């Protein structure tokens, strides 16, 4: 079995909150008046029902508090750190879409592992594709219930995850769970496994850990976040949808912001 060194997984909680399923013009007026610094636009998520949106928030046990960005800047950290642009090179693999399933934990873990392999191999164009389907199905995730980030990290360390061709992702279209027995019979021989992980506990530790590569984290999502377009997102209005797993790929001290990678497709929040 091939092992990936320095595959860093983080399970911390970050807050994000917001507005209803959402009248865009009214929300943007409110954002402008309150000078929150971000802009909303219509997205495909905004056309889902409340039940469908809630189902997509599959990160379990996400608490409403965690590591929020501090205006205190570490003397060791650069002002901006972004794995999409490290010395002009993008190490982040393409953003995918979890679709009609609460599988965000698997997508966050797999996306982080893929990007970490780009970083560790020093071949940013490698862009390996691992199977979110296999990780979610065999690790114990469920579309209706979701999964725990800690369980994903443990499974990646104990068993690993095979390539995408071993178990293509179907849940996003069908919304239905599939059995672990449906993945390819050679999965054990074609899996990558995490051999090292850490759990930073404060902002300086998180920033330092990012030097090794992206990390898995979670956030609370409220309804205005689904129509985020640009700027630094801040709570404005709306009810809680649930916990969402994401990949933390950088920070921007000049804006007091974290930089994240989601699993809602390449066009969400794209101007």
Fill in the keyword field for this structure:
7 helices; alpha+beta; globular; disordered N terminus; single chain; three-stranded mixed β-sheet; five-stranded mixed β-sheet; 271 residues
Describe the fold and architecture.
It is built from seven helices and ten strands. The protein has helices at residues 24-34, 50-56, 104-121, 132-139, 149-158, 171-174, 203-210, and strands spanning 2-4, 13-14, 38-40, 80-82, 161-162, 191-194, 215-222, 228-231, 240-252, 257-261. Mean pLDDT is 87; it is low at 1-21 and 69-73. The protein is of the alpha+beta class.
Helix content: 10-25%
Q: Which oligomerization state do the chains in this entry correspond to?
A: single chain
Query: What's the overall average pLDDT, rounded?
Result: 87
Largest beta-sheet characterization: 5 strands, mixed
Give a count of the beta strands, DSSP E runs of length 2 or more: 10
Topology:
Blueprint: E1 2-4, E2 13-14, H1 24-34, E3 38-40, H2 50-56, E4 80-82, H3 104-121, H4 132-139, H5 149-158, E5 161-162, H6 171-174, E6 191-194, H7 203-210, E7 215-222, E8 228-231, E9 240-252, E10 257-261
Parallel strand pairs: 1-6, 2-7
Antiparallel strand pairs: 3-8, 4-9, 5-6, 7-9, 9-10
Helix pairs in contact: 3-4
């Amino acid at each position: 079995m091939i092992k990936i060194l320095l595959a860093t997984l983080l399970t911390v909680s970050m807050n994000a909150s917001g507005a209803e399923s959402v009248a865009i013009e009214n929300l943007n007026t409110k954002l402008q008046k309150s000078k929150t610094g971000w802009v909303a636009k219509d997205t495909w998520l905004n056309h889902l029902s409340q039940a469908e949106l809630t189902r997509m928030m599959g990160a379990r046990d996400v608490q409403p508090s965690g590591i929020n960005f501090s205006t205190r800047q570490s003397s060791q950290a650069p002002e901006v750190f972004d794995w999409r642009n490290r010395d002009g090179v993008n190490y982040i693999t393409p953003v995918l879409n979890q679709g009609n399933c609460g599988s965000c934990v698997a997508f966050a873990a797999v996306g982080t592992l893929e990007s970490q392999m780009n970083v560790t191999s020093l071949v940013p164009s490698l862009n390996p594709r691992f199977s979110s389907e296999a990780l979610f199905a065999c690790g114990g995730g469920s579309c209706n219930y979701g999964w725990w980030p800690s369980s994903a990290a443990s499974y990646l360390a104990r068993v690993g995850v095979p390539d995408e061709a071993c178990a293509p992702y179907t849940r996003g279209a069908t919304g239905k769970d599939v059995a672990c027995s449906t993945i390819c019979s050679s999965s054990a021989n074609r899996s990558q496994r995490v051999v090292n992980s850490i759990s930073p506990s404060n902002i300086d530790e998180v920033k330092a850990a990012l030097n090794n590569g992206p990390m898995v984290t979670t956030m609370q999502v409220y309804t205005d976040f689904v129509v985020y377009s640009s700027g630094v997102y801040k709570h404005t209005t709306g009810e809680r949808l649930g916990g969402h797993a994401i990949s933390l790929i950088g920070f921007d001290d000049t804006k007091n912001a974290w930089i994240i990678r989601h699993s809602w497709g390449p066009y969400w929040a794209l101007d």
